[in-house]
Amino acid sequence: MPTYAPAAMVPVRASGLDLWDQNGKHYLDFTSGIAVASLGHCNPALVETLTQQANTLWHLGNGYTNEPVLRLALALTEATFADRAFFCNSGAEANEAALKLARKHAHTKFGAHKSRVVSCLNSFHGRTLFTVSVGGQAKYTEGFEPLPPSIDHIPYNDIEAARAAIGDDVCAVIVEPVQGEGGVMPGNPEYLRVLRELCDKTGAVLIFDEVQSGMGRTGALFAYQGYGVTPDILTAAKALGNGYPIGAMLTTNELAQTLSVGTHGTTYGGNPLAASIALKVLETINQPAFLARVKEASVKLIAKLETLVKDYPNVFSAVRGSGLLLGVVVAEAFKGRSKDIQRAAEAQGLMVLIAGTDVLRLAPALIVSDAQIEEADRLLRLALNELTKPA
């Protein structure tokens, strides 16, 4: 289906942050599959884990539990605020489950009138009809109407708009602690604290979508831990499986009791293959030394990008983001041309992302080395020189 616009080059193999295409050309990958392969491509420990599980037990269906998923659930609840975990296959499914849980909880505890969902403009929560409607980007919902009702969108980081929107009829407030697709925009700590207070006051459920910001990406295991604001529900996916499809919804015992047998489910969710890999990923990332290195690499990469902004003021205007989820904002002269910068970088052998038409997004694997940060800077400069040279 014509739903993607893939690059002309076709990757055929990769290791760590190194990738090669069909012609044998080498690339430095600063995308990690949109913040997914955080431990790098073909990570040896994960290959071993997958191989071992593939020779043991693949799939059972939800009429049975399995040891890997129980170990993963225990590890995630021990590492977070949560008491319970629901496993699925993607971030969209995790958010769908979170929103369904919030609605069911509100209907059970308060009545059907408490059903409104409040989300942020320029957010992204998935591509199901419910989650894409909750995401505040009209370009993704046009032509799919009628959309699910009782969903309102407010500007991100706008405290007064939040106070005005979050009333007694709201069942859920869903927010990304760092907006990814919406332009790599970190949440203001005070804004997130106010959302928590408003949810406490109105009985709404606070959902943190950490599909992109979670699993060490910001330098904490989950971004909420760095902010000191605890949600009622947290969703994770992307880096949780390092490329093997898995999503998770984490919540409290109180909320989990809203669901009973048959009220929600999934065929593949929590299968032994996905769960065993996710556990290995979690055990690797959730180490003080590993997370400290993410913060260190972030400081080094931000410093390089800020120098780049000074050296190319016609192309870039600012750096923003958190940890190793960073955005370089395009300057007025290059407005709408983030894709051109991405293509120029790719031509030099550097893979980067965009977040809309005005932000270049970098999300390298969390194992990125200082030498690779230097090399990315060199390649990006070559790309910019080529892009800005006189015709």
- Assign the CATH architecture of the largest domain: 3-Layer(aba) Sandwich
Tell me, what's the shape? globular
According to CATH, what is the topology of the largest domain? Aspartate Aminotransferase, domain 2
Order of helices and strands: EEEHHHEHEHEHEEEHEHEEHHHEEHEEEH
CATH H-level superfamily title of the largest domain: Type I PLP-dependent aspartate aminotransferase-like (Major domain)
Instruction: Find the structural class using helix and strand composition.
Output: alpha/beta
Number of domains: 2
Protein traits:
391 residues, alpha/beta, Aspartate Aminotransferase, domain 2, 13 helices, 18% strand
Explained architecture:
This protein starts with 10 loop residues before the first strand and ends with a helix. It has a 7-stranded mixed sheet with strand order 4-12-11-10-7-5-6, sandwiched between helices. It has 2 domains: 11-30 and 288-388, Aspartate Aminotransferase, domain 1 (Alpha-Beta Complex), CATH 3.90.1150; 44-285, 3-Layer(aba) Sandwich (Aspartate Aminotransferase, domain 2). It is 38% helix and 18% strand. With 391 residues, it is α/β, with parallel strands linked by helices. It is an enzyme of class 2 (transferase). It holds the Pfam family Aminotran_3. Pyridoxal 5'-phosphate binds at residues 91-92, 124, 209-212, 267. It is found in: Cytoplasm.
